[in-house]
Amino acid sequence: MKILTYILILLSFLVSPTISLVFAQESVKSNPVITRVGDAPLDQKPQVSNSLQLGVRATAPDIPDAALEGAIKEKFGITMRNYGTRHLRWAWEKFWDVSHTKFFDYVRGSTIFASVPRDSSQVGCFKGVSVYVGTYQDETLFKLILIHELGHVIANCNNREQIRWSDYLRAHAVEKGVTWYGNHAYECTKSNNISEDFAETIAYYLNPETKLQTVLCSPDYHPPNLREDFPLHYNVANYILGNY
Q1: Lowest-confidence region among 20-34, 73-87, 120-134, 136-150
Q2: What residues contact residue 189 under an 8 Å CB cut-off, 6+ apart?
Q3: Please, what is the end-to-end C-alpha distance for the chain in angstroms?
Q4: CB neighbourhood size of 181 (10 A)
Q5: What is the 3-state secondary structure (H, E, C) of 175-187?
Q6: CB 92 within 8 A of CB 130
Q7: Beta bridge partners of 144
Q8: Helix H or strand E encompassing 80
Q9: How do residues 207-235 score in pLDDT, each as one tens digit?
Q10: DSSP 48
Q11: Do the beta carbons of residue 102 and residue 122 sit within 8 Å?
Q12: CA separation for the pair 139, 90 (Å, rounded)
């Protein structure tokens, strides 16, 4: 009987190879992901919505100092006010670095205003000032907090369905915050833990190599590895932004 079954399977493959593919597909088990009815799974590749190839990081072209502010607004739709050349160039470089993602789909139209060091916050959306970002003297810290504050714009100025907010809340319920600050924001700055953790998720997803922290309140700081240690947060960020 077994020999006859094998002969029939072999004959079916010779007649229609797709039948064997069906057998193979039925034996593969997929890993569960956080999702809702009607939503695409979070491990599905997002649609590419800009001109650069998703997942290919670009190096910022070298342009004259005097052209930086105008170029940032023209290329990325971001207005930067009261910054000197050094910080404008850092922003230009970081914006190019993330320009292959969908980041600017959510923050285009923002206005960033320079503030005194260590005084950064999101105060609005696309009318007037969106965020204040301090004129930090460390390049890596400035770029990290720049993305953190614009992460608040993503959360607070876009449709919650579009940014998978329910999925993010489920990720947070399981994994808690990705940084010490994300878990203790209220203690540190009287800020909301959920809101700050979302911004931290965006900041560290787009700055995975950094060893710095956004707020100096952690007694025992370790930079998060989202992919390894917080896979649910990572999946949410990846769905929102695409591959970095």
Answers
A1: 20-34
A2: 196, 215, 217
A3: 54
A4: 25
A5: HCCCCHHHHHHHH
A6: no
A7: none
A8: strand 79-81
A9: 999 999 888 787 767 889 999 999 999 99
A10: P
A11: no
A12: 7
Mean per-residue pLDDT, 144-159: 98
3-state secondary structure of 63: coil
The pTM (predicted TM-score) of the whole model is 0.77
Place of tokens 């739709």: 77
81's enclosing H/E stretch is: strand 79-81
Assigned token pair, 216: 């100096």
Distance of CA 117 to the CA centre of its chain: 24
Please report the DSSP string for 87-146 in residue order. HHHHHHHHHHHTTTSSHHHHHTT-EEEEESTT--EE--SSSS--EEEE--SSHHHHHHHH
Percentages of the chain per state (helix, strand, coil), in multiples of 5: 50, 5, 45
Backbone torsion region of residue 197, taken as left when φ is above 0, otherwise alpha when ψ lies between -120 and 50, otherwise beta = alpha
Task: With beta carbons less than 8 A apart as the criterion, state whether 167 and 200 touch.
Answer: no
Residue 42 and residue 236 in contact, taking contact as beta carbons nearer than 8 Å: yes
Using alpha carbons, select from 49, 100, 91 the residue that is nearest to residue 73: 91
Distance CA 100, CA 49 (A): 9
